[in-house]
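Target protein
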Amino acid sequence: MAIFRPFRAIRPTKEHAAAVAALPYDTMSSAEARVRAAGNPHSFLHIDMAEIDLPESTNPYDDIVYDTAAANLQRFITEGTFTQDDAPQYYIYRQTWRDRTQTGLVGCACIDDYQNGIIKKHELTVQNKQEDRIRHVTACNANTGPIFLAYRDQKGIAKRLDDWCSTHPAEYDFTQADVRHECWAINCLALTAQLQAAFAATPALYIADGHHRSASAVHVGLARRAAARSYTGEEEFNFFLAVCFPHEQLEILDYNRVVKDLNGHTTEDFLALIDENFSVVPMPEQYKPNRPHRFGMYLDGQWYKLRPHAGTYDERSPVGRLDVEILQRNLLEPLLNIDDPRRNKRIAFIGGIRGMDELERRCAEDMRVAFSLYAPSLDDLFAIADSGNIMPPKSTWFEPKLLSGLFIHDLE
């Protein structure tokens, strides 16, 4: 059963929260971060992407970047931008976007649960990205970005959070990029005990977003265990920052593909080859699939609807029935020679938040063909994680993103 416990958050004062909060480091480039943080000395990007405070020629993986991140974090605390709560507590983080609200509990998950599979994964991690966050967490001595976890709400956790929110004013309440962000601190020992017990009866937590952050946090925790002469398991380095959301409040957006060329095929030959595994129907306008096992394709200014033939995928397999896997095995790999989409530089991935226009724009700019997909469901994600399998790369895109800087977990 899951361990999810309260902690003493380092967090911005009420008057600084909106200025501090920033999108996570992995949603933008260093150049974009410089623009976003310009004129805002309180932006958390000065900690999460500290290279923005150094010359533009600075390698973002240079030691000085991590040293600067740690120094900036300490400066934010010393100057009073951040304070640390006196006692461990849970927090509530609510986001409202496009008339949909998701309410999560902020606390700390256990590295042992990650190790023994109670915290379930559905993606592989890339070593260099993981190493970056290991160095960042180590330098800052803190988890600075929350892991996005999902759970099946069987113990009334969501209702307890809603009841608290409806009877207490939010400590933070601001809007950033069309998303309303509200946060509460739960300073009630009775409710804290109820929530902790409810999670202790929850069989599994699922990583929705943040595989690299979670793997890095666990690595740091295990390294500190190894370096310690002894440990009890209660030290803060045994835990990492997370926000848990009930799965019925969450939505996965589509994650689309664009490819640079047709692997030497002419348009006519390519369409004929696709026809072996898919029906191909020209469409009069943009085609965004509205059900599983339908694909849009944009090629030479024309949209097509693709439907895989029976027998080209395994509906009984939790991975094999995913549309990203069907497209990969029946088209991207055999026809376009994209055998490893994690490393192949001829393919790029476009989050559904950018819309169909972005696929057309990329084809006009630097790509040849685009594919729009139907998003997998949370049930798909759970089924794959429960079976011990891994989703294909770039299968899920969650919106809205959890902002960084609102809650920090001190490893001491």
